[in-house]
Amino acid sequence: MSGSMNEDAQKIWDERYGQEPAPPSSNQGGDPMHYTLHNFLYQNSIALPTTGRLDGWIVADVGERFMKPAVKKVLALGSGMAIIEEFLLKQDYAEHIVAYEFSENACRAAMERVAGTPLEGRLEMRSGDVLVDNLPSESFDVVFVQAAIHHFEKIDEMFAMMHRLLKPDGLLMYDEYVGDDHHIFSDEVVEILNQLNDSLEPRYRFDHLAGAPRNSIHANTMEAMMALDPSEGVHASRILPLTYQWFEVLQRRDFGGTLLRPFFCGILPNFDWNDERDRTVARMIMLVERMLLQKGVIPSHNTDIVARKRPKPLPPMHPAESARIGFADWVPPALYGTRPEAVPPTLRVTPRAPWAEMGGTNIVDSLRRWLAGRR
Ligand SMILES: C[S@@+](CC[C@H](N)C(=O)[O-])C[C@H]1O[C@@H](n2cnc3c(N)ncnc32)[C@H](O)[C@@H]1O
User: Fold this and answer.
1) Distance, CA of 156 to CA of 195 (rounded, Å)
2) What is the pTM assigned to this prediction?
């Protein structure tokens, strides 16, 4: 690694964006690493609990709820190739987006994509450092960040800046990894991952990234994470406390990933999503995560937030107050959480069951009544 963490991360991302897209790497043509890129898993573990629909998408949902009529000026941070920013423009959720992205390759790719289209002129890509560009205060309606805050090295300065750049009542919107710093998970999470791994038939446990059976799951080490990307999750655990300090949280949708991301990483190619047995195994894993999240046994490592600029930031949250901030049973201290929506939602397990629609509390009775009504 070379100089500052930002420079190292910038180089890593520039190389990644400069590469040709990888060919499909598994027997199902799916990504071996990211469970979120597998439709079956995305739909059941993220789309459904956050939007209530299997074919829902959080970004579109946020756009519909908070960006109609179109937001005039959006500042996007860490936008990569600005694929999602392009979607916001195309859907007319935003009129104009200024996007900062460290990687010049990514900026160039985005500008080439929109060149000559009606979006040209509505998307401005900048590869400089937003902290040193000294943008005018109160000049944006929305700050939009997709999966980049967990890469911010100067996270305190970034939150102060996002707050300063927003107009009064301006909104911060993000979808982020908010778990343990550098993805070095708690012993408890690693233990649960191993118990799940042990319960899998060997053919599901072949790790295609390691090229060997996965007999156990080890905690990430700092050395390995530094070699991979020193900015990965650098201050992830501070994202939520800083959010409540600088912003009033209007909507928070936790969608887990605490077990699913590390558990499925490497073994994804073993699953054929057309095979009902494989789907059943995956559903069980998703169910275990959902139940452990709902019972407050494990924290959610990912969340989607919409928050309004506070007229004045609050004092930093005391560590005791934020200790369980990622857990479903956390209730914001009075000062920080002024709205009921700020309480993390209990994740919905399935679409509303027919008996719930009937307002029944006794499931068996309600089901009986529902069945009777169908005859
Ligand atoms: C995980 S990628 C997400 C990219 C994109 N938002 C997406 O969802 O596809 C994180 C991106 O943030 C960029 N990044 C991290 N810190 C940044 C900063 N302070 N300023 C600009 N870009 C930054 C990285 O270069 C990288 O492209």
Assistant:
1) 37
2) 0.88
Please return the burial class of 158, using the count of CB atoms within 10 Å of its CB with bins 0-12, 13-18 and 19+: buried
In order of 74, 85, 144, the CA distances from 92 in angstroms are: 12, 11, 15
What's 18's DSSP letter? H
Cα-to-centroid distance, 333 and ligand 1 (Å): 31
Of 51, 124, 57, whose CA–CA distance to 86 is shortest? 124
Q: Which of 328, 330, 266, 326 has the alpha carbon at shortest distance from 301? A: 326
Q: Within a 13 Å sphere around the CA of 292, how many CA atoms are in the beta-carbon half? A: 21
Residue 190 Cα to ligand 1 midpoint, Å, equals: 27
- Where b means 16+ CB within 10 Å and e means fewer, 100-124 reads bbbbebbbebbeebbeeeebeebbe
- The reply to whether ligand 1 has any atom less than 6 angstroms from the CB of 148 is yes
Q: Which pair of tokens denotes residue 188?
A: 């408890």
Cis-peptide, bond into residue 23, ω within 30° of zero: no
Distance from C-alpha of 196 to C-alpha of 191, rounded to nearest angstrom? 9
For residue 145, report the distance from its CA to the centre of ligand 1, in Å. 8
Neighbours of 97 (CB within 10 A): 25
Nearest CA to ligand 1 atom 8: 146
In a 3-state reduction of DSSP, which class is residue 141? strand
Please write the tens of the pLDDT for every residue from 221-241: 999 999 999 999 999 999 999
Query: What kind and span of H or E run contains 74?
Result: strand 71-77
| Mean per-residue pLDDT, 108-133 | 96
Confidence of residue 372 (pLDDT cuts 50, 70, 90): low
43: tokens are 């739909």
CA 166 – CA 138 distance, rounded (Å): 5
Termini Cα distance of the chain: 69
